[in-house]
Design goal:
alpha/beta, 7-stranded mixed β-sheet
Length: 282
């Protein structure tokens, strides 16, 4: 496999329980300040990293979801962390779940607004997704060149204007609760996070999208650690049917669906509850 570098960030309580926080698609290791404040209050050592091809991490073309568990174990080794919890939002959700087969080291996993596996039996994968996501995965199915072209246009649209304008490029994906919060400081964070993710181009985003239309590399029935699945009923990035599908098929999973939440509000408003639950398993 050769040597790859991964960009890693830490926040919260350096002496606390280690919790890995996995970013969405596209995304990077930059933390939202409210997440850090909550982690500090609860004595959590937060660790985030750029998935391959994003931010400061080298590409890893052809990676699958399961590979994230190896990268996280390698980061844990480097940081001298023995046991850890993992959560991920959106595109980070499947990558968080990959860790739930590692009962030797992983204490608990939360998946927030996570996509389900592609061609999942009994799920219409694209049904209810905003048009941008339908177009994006349509491009992924056409192949690497059409996908790169599409993502480069999206990158320009998201980063070409002011931070406040980022919601315009995401309009088809934003339900009313999400549109209401994606202003001011949160819009600026979103812009900075995506800017860092795509600083060298769309390699990470391209890899992530192919990851989602391929087998994950592990079976949900291999999961042996406590799992929570969280979803907002109004989500237009990843429709709630994905969360329900996962919760029904992961052994022992707890399901939390909030009628008032979308994709972004879920990942902001529920983070204290997620942290609390994960820490309770150490």
């Amino acid at each position: 496999m050769g040597h790859r570098s991964l960009g890693v960030s830490e926040a919260g309580d350096p002496e606390g329980h280690a919790v890995f926080c996995l970013h969405g698609t596209p995304g990077s290791r930059l933390f939202w300040n409210e997440v850090v404040e909550d982690a500090e209050r609860r004595g959590i050592r937060l660790v985030a990293y750029d998935r391959p091809g994003y931010g400061r991490s080298d590409p890893d073309p052809g990676r699958v979801v399961a590979d994230a568990a190896d990268d996280i174990a390698a980061i844990a080794d480097a940081l001298k962390i023995d046991r850890y919890a993992v959560y991920g939002g959106s595109g980070g959700g499947p990558h968080a779940l990959a860790n739930a087969v590692r009962a030797d080291r992983v204490v608990a996993v939360s998946a927030l607004a996570s996509v389900a596996p592609w061609r999942a039996d009994g799920l219409d994968w694209l049904d209810g997704m905003g048009q941008s996501n339908v177009d994006e995965f349509g491009a992924a199915l056409e192949g690497e060149e059409p996908l790169r072209r599409y993502l480069e246009e999206q990158r320009d649209a998201m980063l070409g204007g002011s931070p406040e304008a980022i919601s315009e490029s995401l309009m088809s994906l934003l339900c009313p609760p999400d549109l209401a919060v994606l202003t001011g400081e949160l819009a600026r964070y979103f812009y900075d996070q995506v800017g860092e993710a795509l600083r060298r181009g769309v390699e990470g985003w391209t890899e992530d999208d192919f990851v989602f239309v391929r087998p994950w590399g592990f079976d949900l029935d291999e999961i042996r650690v406590p799992v929570q699945v969280w979803h907002g009923a109004q989500d237009q990035f990843v429709p709630v049917a994905h969360g329900r599908w996962l919760a029904e098929r992961i052994p022992g999973a707890e399901q939390h669906v909030y009628d008032e939440d979308g994709h972004l509000t879920l990942q902001i408003a529920r983070i204290g509850d997620v942290h609390d639950w994960l820490v309770s398993h150490f």
